[in-house]
Amino acid sequence: MHFFDGDNWEISPAGGLTGEAYMASSGESKLFIKRNSSPFLAVLSAEGIVPKLLWTRRMDNGDVLTAQTWLKGRVLTPNEMASEQVAEMLKKIHSSEPLLTMMKRLGKKPVTTTQLLNRLSSQARGRTETRALRQSLNFLKDNAERAEYPKKMVCHSDINHNNWLLGEDEKSLYLVDWDQAVIADPAMDLAMLLYWYVEEEDWEDWLSLYGMKRTKSLQLRLVWHMIAMTVRFMFWHQEHAEMKKIILFEKDLLWLNDYAAGLLV
């Protein structure tokens, strides 16, 4: 695959699920190249949320390539996800008017809990209905209205620690892989971070770093979105026949269902 006019660039896959990301290297120079990324990338770069966007180029076949600074650094460890730096970055994302404006210009509409429920219910048809899945869908249905939150913001929707990049200076933090971004309740992002990476006894302290208080209403929104997200991830792994992952998410759902039931008592 030829991205450049010259032959002195070496192109190699840069990982990711879509197969659309590459590393281009020439001597000491390195670029992160992505094919057909969203125009949203320009705003993310301007806001300092992703590594700097250097150029955009349309190829003869109609593909659009973007080139970003190749970040010398590393991904965050799971333990680092509870840091103040992560809390500040998420707050910046969720509060960004430029991000929200661009998402709306791209035709994105705010997503409600009812829409998320309907999407998952549709995806569930034809699948084996386990006890965990049945309980999860019933909980989502029974509590969709209570978990609805009117103030929608831009959410990444997959803040796995592998999507967080820390520069060599240990100060520059970026959140990458925005292909699944939506306009939704920020609890969608907060739920994954808190349930996966922060001990529950530390939730209040972490939320204070983010600028929010732990309330019963927030707790319901968090568990609702965590169950919805876990079901979504489980479906994805089912479609890719990854049995070990499916079993893990089934166990997570059983635990979440019990936890959610305790909140409603």
Automatic annotation (TrEMBL):
<dbReference type="InterPro" id="IPR002575">
    <property type="entry name" value="Aminoglycoside_PTrfase"/>
</dbReference>
<feature type="domain" description="Aminoglycoside phosphotransferase">
    <location>
        <begin position="40"/>
        <end position="207"/>
    </location>
</feature>
<dbReference type="InterPro" id="IPR052077">
    <property type="entry name" value="CcrZ_PhaseVar_Mediator"/>
</dbReference>
<dbReference type="Pfam" id="PF01636">
    <property type="entry name" value="APH"/>
</dbReference>
<dbReference type="InterPro" id="IPR011009">
    <property type="entry name" value="Kinase-like_dom_sf"/>
</dbReference>
<keyword id="KW-0808">Transferase</keyword>
<protein>
    <submittedName>
        <fullName>Phosphotransferase</fullName>
    </submittedName>
</protein>
<dbReference type="GO" id="GO:0016740">
    <property type="term" value="F:transferase activity"/>
</dbReference>
